[in-house]
Structures are given as C-alpha cells and as structure tokens.
Amino acid sequence: MSIAGFVPADFVPPTALVTDRFRLEPLGPQHNEADLAAWTSSIEHIRTTPGYPDGSWPPATGMSLEDNLADLTRHAADFTAHRGFTFTVLDPDGTVIGCVYLYPTRDPEYDVTVQSWVRASEAHLDEPVADAVHAWLRAEWPWRRIDRCGR
C-alpha cells in the first residue's frame, strides 16, 4: 500500500471522468483563477452542501489568488504522492464549476471520504456529480466503503 495504506502502491489513479454534462480532471495550479472565481461566487451555497457541516470552508472572506494557488499546489502534490485526489469539475465548455475531493477518512467504517461542490449557478448538477463520482469510485478505484458525507 502507499502512504498510510490509502491506495495500493501499484494503483494508477484514473485522471478523468467524462459525462455529457461535466468532466473531471486533476485539480492543479493551472486552474487557480477559475477555481477561485468558482468557489468565491458560491460560498453560501457550498456551505449548505452535504459534506461541509462545520461552516469553516469556504472561508467567508474569500482567499487571495496566491493563497488559493498554494492550496491547489498542495492538492496537486497530494495527488502525485497518492495522499489524496482532488479533481476540478468542468462544464462541456471547460469552465470550472466545482470540485471533488477524495481523501483518507478518520472513520474506521470507511475507506475514503468524498466531498464535492458545484457553483450555485450549477446547483442542478450537485447530485448528478456526486452520483457519477460514486459510480466511478465503485468501478475504477480500490475503495468499497465510501463515505459520501450524507449523500
């Protein structure tokens, strides 16, 4: 197994999920401005999304472009090291409309915790994204006990 046994050491993580309504690709520094615009436009919506119960994210005051870049750089490093896997959600035109996070869980009943959000303007995709990701995890990822954070 790799770091903390999150995924097998020889596991090659999928890098895309494509549907007719959206697609996922690994989140990285190249998404900085678009990612920041997406979540800052939807802070209250994201805070009411299942999986964000403590109200601490996203920060109500936003974040600087530099701080967001540091966050995206950390997520990309986690992906490379197999510590966690974060994907940006893009609409068919390539606009960032959300994010999906796959990280180790602290709950021994689960293998992975899955969180996702979409822009308030794309709220109709909230459940379709969560459901498609769940099916994708079942089909292509090594986890069987998936914490969907109330979804």
* Averaged pLDDT: 93
Helix content: 25-40%
How many structural units, i.e. domains? 1
Rg from C-alpha positions?
Answer: 15 Å
The count of DSSP E runs of length 2 or more, i.e. the number of strands, is 6
CATH superfamily: Gcn5-related N-acetyltransferase (GNAT)
What's the CATH C level? Alpha Beta
**Poorly predicted residue ranges:** none
Major sheet description: 6 strands, mixed
- Coarse shape: globular
Q: Give the helices and strands as they follow along the chain.
A: EEHHHEEEHE
Strand order of the largest sheet: 1-2-3-4-5-6
Could you tell me the strand content as a percent range?
A: 15-25%
Protein model, in words:
The protein has 151 residues and is α+β, with helices and mostly antiparallel strands. It has one domain (3-147): Gcn5-related N-acetyltransferase (GNAT) (Aminopeptidase), CATH 3.40.630. The protein has helices at 32-40, 43-47, 65-81, 126-140, and strands at residues 17-18, 23-26, 85-90, 96-103, 112-118, 146-147. A six-stranded mixed sheet has the order 1-2-3-4-5-6, with helices on both faces. Helix 1 (32-40) packs across helix 3. The protein is globular, with a radius of gyration of 15 Å. The two termini are 28 Å apart.
